[in-house]
Amino acid sequence: MISRFNLTKWMLVLALGVMTLAPVMADDYKAGYEELIESQGEYAYAFDFFTVSMLWTVIAAAMVFIMHLGFATLEAGLTQKKNTVNILFKNVWIISIGLLTYAAFGFNTHYPCGDWIIPNIFGIAGGQPWIGDLNAGGGDNFGYGGVGLCMTAYGDFIFQAMFAATAATIVSGAVAERIKLGSFMLFSLILVAFGYTIAGSWHWGEGFLNQLGGGEAAFYDFAGSTVVHGFGGAAALACVILLGARKGKYTKDGIRPILPHSLPLAAVGVFLLFFGWFGFNGGSVLSAAPGPLGLVFTTTALAAAAGGVTSIFTSMIVLRKPDLSMALNGLLAGLVSITAGADAVGVWSAVIMGGIGGILVVFSILFFDKIKIDDPVGAISVHGVVGIWGTIAVAIFGGANFVSQVIGVVAVYAFAFIFSFIVFFIIKLIMGVRVSEEEEVEGLDVAEHGVPAYGLD
Amino acid sequence: MISRFNLTKWMLVLALGVMTLAPVMADDYKAGYEELIESQGEYAYAFDFFTVSMLWTVIAAAMVFIMHLGFATLEAGLTQKKNTVNILFKNVWIISIGLLTYAAFGFNTHYPCGDWIIPNIFGIAGGQPWIGDLNAGGGDNFGYGGVGLCMTAYGDFIFQAMFAATAATIVSGAVAERIKLGSFMLFSLILVAFGYTIAGSWHWGEGFLNQLGGGEAAFYDFAGSTVVHGFGGAAALACVILLGARKGKYTKDGIRPILPHSLPLAAVGVFLLFFGWFGFNGGSVLSAAPGPLGLVFTTTALAAAAGGVTSIFTSMIVLRKPDLSMALNGLLAGLVSITAGADAVGVWSAVIMGGIGGILVVFSILFFDKIKIDDPVGAISVHGVVGIWGTIAVAIFGGANFVSQVIGVVAVYAFAFIFSFIVFFIIKLIMGVRVSEEEEVEGLDVAEHGVPAYGLD
Amino acid sequence: MISRFNLTKWMLVLALGVMTLAPVMADDYKAGYEELIESQGEYAYAFDFFTVSMLWTVIAAAMVFIMHLGFATLEAGLTQKKNTVNILFKNVWIISIGLLTYAAFGFNTHYPCGDWIIPNIFGIAGGQPWIGDLNAGGGDNFGYGGVGLCMTAYGDFIFQAMFAATAATIVSGAVAERIKLGSFMLFSLILVAFGYTIAGSWHWGEGFLNQLGGGEAAFYDFAGSTVVHGFGGAAALACVILLGARKGKYTKDGIRPILPHSLPLAAVGVFLLFFGWFGFNGGSVLSAAPGPLGLVFTTTALAAAAGGVTSIFTSMIVLRKPDLSMALNGLLAGLVSITAGADAVGVWSAVIMGGIGGILVVFSILFFDKIKIDDPVGAISVHGVVGIWGTIAVAIFGGANFVSQVIGVVAVYAFAFIFSFIVFFIIKLIMGVRVSEEEEVEGLDVAEHGVPAYGLD
């Protein structure tokens, strides 16, 4: 950091800039750039703002990508050693299939923009079934969405595509250690390709949640407390109900804790998620507008910090020990709490929102354990329960319409739950969803993948 | 990489750009943007530069954030398995409390800008005690600090906030494996909230170090070799002296090495720190000015590389083996060496500065071990000792005033040491700072947190 | 994500922007900026585009840097526990020496721009032997390469320098677990400093591959399927042939699989490589031009995803199990497949290219194992074999000249193989390249470095 407000130093930098900038314009460049400026005419200014915004969009996409590594390591770390390969494998699958199905039809299902009643999967309702058509239609077109959407169609696609697989990743954690690989692969494909994109279209695709009160009382969910996290949490709940708890978790003698196999791996996961969240929330500004960007980074970080602190103290009081898993989930709860309103609240509100999220998540995890909903990583609590809080909180702190927020939560959660329940139920009927008891005891790594995660020498 | 200087290809890209840019300006966008340009008047150009700079600021903040993961994994990796949960927990605490206290009063203590003698904690001396007031005062204001500080107040806050917790993280490593959790939580809170911000105000908050020689001979510390790293190292030394060495480290039969429990984790930490340092130093340019940015990235990388190479050869000669811990600390030493002068020296100088840092750190670590200052991760050497070298080196290679550099080092190190000594001493009197011998033998994970870091199955 | 095309909201943001922008121009800033604008004259527009592009260049450099962590953890994860320290140490060495030698003479060897026949190492042929001369010649010069190369010389250097060490990292994986440390250190230094830069100069340094057909049929390799990855893969093959297989791998009773010691570490590596690849390919646009940037991110991600999916199904069919190592290598194969043509093909093509890469890599790994070329991490297959495919695919899908692509592949692969063979052969003669049988059995960590990677308590 150079000294702030240090005018002398700044003038020096400026002078240096001037000196280096002045003499160097090659003639070949001159002609080309003049042509560019001319063709842009009065919009010349816009070009650079668009360029910066598009750069931010793709960087944010890369940061959201790294969240998939965060989810993978968090899930692997919080579960048993013997199921680690299985978890990593599932996550390779999710990100791969998420990107491909989103290109194939997810993007157009997600953003039918007017045609949301019959989502235009495979071109139904006149849509384009494949992102590839953007190419013909101007995939790198400046005016793709007007300057209100400061990105090319490819930029829009890649940012949204990175989000798409998140729902399945959330489910992956909740069903870990006993789900059949093939059944999960099929379910996650359907969930990402159709479930998430249909629900998302209600909000971001100009769907009915966006039209509430004639658009005056639109459902407000900035980066997806409900549409992404809540959706994943509700889907996870449906699956866990159908799947049942891990063997030996709930015994006659009470709840037997199944210890995480690597808390360092889990901590790496949470810190990477925190890092990626700056892309998740920050990228959702959809431009590099300095005002919103600074606010969103600040509220995001402070809500996470507050969630970390309150979950630490809550766990100290309730569990009578400083619990690392709870602290880690507290950070995530803070992040989910602010995701719906990151651009709409101030710093005090962000701290309160995140802080309440951090308290909520501890009680929620204990509650689900009590009613024997076995969620090895706490995904239903972190994303599902706290997602509700984050969404409602925008009505309390950020001026969103309370009724619309409730409608949004109910609609998305109900859809996610029912959609997942039906799909997972059918898969259960046809091919089963749970590994055999022997495989569960042996561990999925050797049973399904033929290799342990850790070698001995 | 496309071929450099390949004019044809560039003209093609340009032509493509022109074609896609020309026809697409929606009318609704047109009106809005014209208004924007008009209102900016002759400053229209500045807007985009400001936007780019602000984008870089928040991205750099995210990169500095990831350094906290780097510190956590480095510290965990270099210590024993049985204290891993404790270390990870401390790091969740540090980042959380660091962000919150910096919002509550750290930011205004750090930057009183004229009122530094009585830091305006909680509004004393007329300051604003809470970052939230930025909101009212223009948290997303373009002109917050003039263009010399190309960021909104929120951008400034979040970037500085990520730095703030670093001092505590450095201490965390040095006191690992035997400190009482509650005592550390309290100490780190006080250190981050008051210690770091007061010392920082002397330099970055327009304090006396910035006014040396009437401002003509200002103390030069670009991104904080002294103000951040040296501060942390000196604080760590004070704590270690009060805390004592780990049981069994220094025996009658000499020094018993306590082996690191996971060198892969440590290596991950160092590489993440290296990555984050590009945000730490690069973000300290405080704008996206291309000249300084390229220079800072280059000097940062080359100094690290030189530190890596010299520490490798030094360890080979002195320890008679290619020591991985030393090589990793050598990379960090190279980075600390360049942090004070990254924008003020050329590439040759950067290589020499980093290279000397890499040699210094090996001897320093051996020296502290010899005088029985037990620093499990080498933090006092890497940040404290090399921080001095990095600061002085700017006088040798970068034209800073030698006397001012010495004054800065003495003032900050003395303050950090004395402040930490007093606070930690009081905490020791009141609640103790060290776990019991049984707890130390058993490991803090099970003793304090009730769970091992690694599960068996 | 705020609702797309939601005009009202955008106008609000805009209005907010206008309000915050208007009143705040301090006079001291005014003068400085006016001077800047004046001096730029008609090129004022270019300044911001240049600034954005340069920012992207340095961020991309940091992302490519993180690939070195990815390579290190992938290699460590896929090999045995007892050789982990050795692998991490090699990777610290590679990045350090790669950056330093590239500064010392690599950069000028790589880009002789006309003088490629006698590369100007150490100033031979009139070149500048040290990046430092850029300083005098304008290291932070705006016009360094015209706007076609939107970066300062330092920006260009640091981005290219991060690439330079990649070739050695690829070799490192293939020769792991039995190579002598000193021999590897020497070989990697020579390979990075001279081998890679000479071959690279043929393409990116205006060399003969760039002049094929009088420049009309130039060899096309966008970000280096052949020039970076293929080069590394071919060099690795030469070394493995001279080095021989690990003891006990190929026995009379067939191939004995040597299990990876940490698949989580390997997975972390691959996801970090995937992340870094956005910088590798995206940064190779050499500017922040929105059109190419969005396309490159999209094709890169989709090719990786396709490689992941096809390698999963191929391994299920061929190996009769869902193999995690193959899935991870499939992601990488998808990435290598698209690296040569990421800016030149559409999304459908990217999916097909990556998908074929994912199939190829499985068969290639099995093939090399069959002919007893022992490559612990599959580097020869991932980078060498798939690199050929990626390069040829640009002729099939992206309109490159088929003959030129073949010439490029043959020239670079032959050079890499022969250069490496000769250098490694001489090193073998003089100092030996392989550790003793006892050291191999004991593991290199304790034998060469005197410390195990993982402590017991």
Report on this model:
The structure is a homotrimer of 457-residue chains. With 457 residues, the first copy, chain A, is mainly alpha-helical. Chain A has one domain: Orthogonal Bundle (Ammonium transporter fold). The first copy, chain A, has 17 helices and 2 strands. The first copy, chain A, has a two-stranded antiparallel ribbon. In chain A, β1 (250-251) and β2 form a beta hairpin. In chain A, α3 (44-78) packs parallel to α7, α4 (84-110) runs parallel beside α8 and α13 (347-370) runs antiparallel to α14 (379-397). The two termini of chain A are 47 Å apart. Chains in contact: A-B, A-C, B-C.
Topology:
Three copies of one chain form a homotrimer.
Chain A: H1 7-21, H2 27-40, H3 44-78, H4 84-110, H5 133-138, H6 153-164, H7 166-174, H8 181-203, H9 225-243, E1 250-251, E2 254-255, H10 263-283, H11 290-318, H12 324-339, H13 347-370, H14 379-397, H15 402-431, H16 437-442, H17 444-449
Antiparallel strand pairs in A: 1-2
Helix pairs in contact in A: 3-4, 3-6, 3-7, 3-10, 4-6, 4-7, 4-8, 7-8, 7-9, 8-9, 8-15, 9-14, 9-15, 10-11, 10-12, 11-12, 11-13, 12-13, 12-14, 13-14, 14-15
Summarize the structure.
The structure is a homotrimer of 457-residue chains. Chain A has 457 residues and is mainly α.
Counting structural domains of chain A, the number is 1
Largest interface: A-B, 91 and 115 residues
* Unreliable stretches covering 5 or more consecutive residues of chain A: 1-45, 114-127
Q: Please give the number of β-strands of chain A.
A: 2
Beta-strand share of residues of chain A? under 5%
Quaternary structure type: homotrimer
Mean pLDDT metric of chain A: 85
CATH topology (fold) name of chain A = Ammonium transporter fold
Biggest sheet record of chain A = 2 strands, antiparallel
Structural class of chain A: mainly alpha
Can you write the helix and strand succession of chain A as a string?
A: HHHHHHHHHEEHHHHHHHH
Q: What would you say the CATH architecture of chain A is?
A: Orthogonal Bundle
Distance linking N and C termini of chain A? 47 Å
Strand order of the largest sheet of chain A: 1-2
